[in-house]
Write a structure and sequence with these properties.
Strand content of chain A: under 5%
Helix content of chain A: 40-55%
Shape of chain A: globular
Oligomer: homodimer
Structural class of chain A: mainly alpha
Order of helices and strands of chain A: EHHHHHEEHHH
Low-confidence stretches of chain A: 1-34
Radius of gyration of chain A: 22 Å
Strand order of the largest sheet of chain A: 2-3
Number of strands of chain A: 3
Chain lengths: 269, 269
């Protein structure tokens, strides 16, 4: 049996067609022959513009909230520019981080999205931790939001606040106290959209520096963290606590039984 | 020009070959023609065996820690059984959740992995929240770990504790206090590996019920959550707090200025 050129190209076309959208096969699967693990090379990062990323994250927040906003603002620019493997990432899954995961108020979704992006592009544990630290410490210590969208969904004078925490619940609480706006209202949503933009911008700044130029941006944790960890942390004698979060954000007062009352963590709000 | 049958099949073979590993094209990309968002259909879930999942998660924890352990234990079974799109998911990124994200002590990585899996398989916000609630409330209220591995990496009598929190820092702290083992030691690592197994098992139980059989498993938050939210939550008059976490885990004491001292949240530990 012989086929005409048209039939051949038709057959090839069907075969290619079924695979077309993934023709630039996902790098990870290629390089590992079906293996996936922490030992696998991370996806390649390409430098992005921080301001463009912030503007996108703001808009994506109104599509799928904070974690989704930060994550998609970065991945989707790479998808548009380079196609696969970025294009096939199921970004929709990242909606789970909204409100500190399904409104539980735990880790801020914008930071969860930032850390997920960092996890995708930086494989070594030390590098991941260094990049995460730079975004998390910035978030804890900076008066936010600062982003002013090109076309605001809600045109308002936006009050800012310092979270002193990486958790959604105290972060939103601090802003609500500073702004006197209630939680779960349209002003709160606009605040989180702008905060998502700020976090996406900061993540790209850190990735551009850390993965492209290999320059670390030094940031220090609140001094009370090292003070508490001196007795409780992994390198102390007691070794009964594991945390990098600002202690006083939750431990605003300690028992009178604490051996040294002078080093009680202060409430930072 | 005409091609022989062998040449045709050869050409088709090459075309298929370049795409072979992704021949079952990623459902999301297919259905949305390159779009990705919260409106996109989630990936299909297929019922898994909870005990097999737990055993895998235990082993994967020693490969990439808690978030990675839960996430990969589920995705990788589906990858082995069904291939794409599961096989191409870059599971290595999930190492970021270790120790409450890069040892920050925020959201427990096992729960972050569980919520990420739920985000991948359940798209509707209400369904995501319902499934997350069932895993998070179980984690807050259950004495863990209970999993006994078939081949323990560290053969020991494992003390259990109730976290009363979804955060890594108080969860590890409660276990360290109950067990008298220090943090960051080999016993702590073994505890978290078994906790990862427990969380993966619970996630699969919840997914099997919620996505396969459509039966909800009712669980109630600690009563102090509704008590606090009655005055502070999104439906209250003050509307100055947003959280589902057990309040007393952080707020172990409140100011004397609190209007009703009788409803101070208690420290649950």
């Amino acid at each position: 049996m012989e086929w005409t050129r048209r039939e051949v190209f038709g057959a090839v076309g069907i075969a290619v067609g079924t695979c077309m959208l993934s023709s630039c096969m996902r790098q990870e699967t290629k390089t590992t022959q079906g293996k996936t693990g922490p030992d696998v090379a991370p996806w390649p990062y390409h430098e992005l513009d921080p301001q463009t990323t912030a503007e996108r994250a703001y808009l994506y927040h109104y599509e799928g909230h904070c974690m989704y906003g930060v994550f998609k603002s970065i991945i989707w620019q790479l998808a548009e520019r380079y196609g696969e493997p970025y294009r096939s990432f199921p970004c929709g899954m990242m909606t789970y981080g909204a409100g500190g995961v399904a409104s539980w108020g735990s880790l801020c979704g914008a930071l969860n999205g930032a850390a997920a992006v960092i996890g995708l592009f930086a494989s070594r544990k030390e590098q991941q931790a260094s990049l995460v630290n730079q975004v998390f410490l910035w978030y804890e210590q900076t008066e936010l939001p600062v982003h002013v969208p090109a076309q605001p969904k809600l045109d308002m004078e936006m009050p800012a606040s310092v979270a002193h925490s990486v958790l959604c619940h105290p972060s939103v609480g601090a802003w609500s106290k500073a702004s006197r706006y209630p939680v779960a209202g349209k002003e709160h949503m606009e605040r989180c959209a702008r905060l998502t933009a700020d976090t996406a911008r900061q993540t790209v700044i850190v990735l551009n520096e850390g993965l492209s130029v290999r320059v670390a941006r030094p940031m220090l944790a609140d001094e009370q963290v090292s003070q508490c960890n001196a007795c409780h942390g992994r390198d102390s004698e007691r070794r009964d606590a594991l945390a990098g979060m600002t202690c006083g954000s939750c431990h605003s007062s300690l028992s009178d039984k604490h051996p040294d009352v002078s080093i009680k963590p202060r409430k930072p709000l």
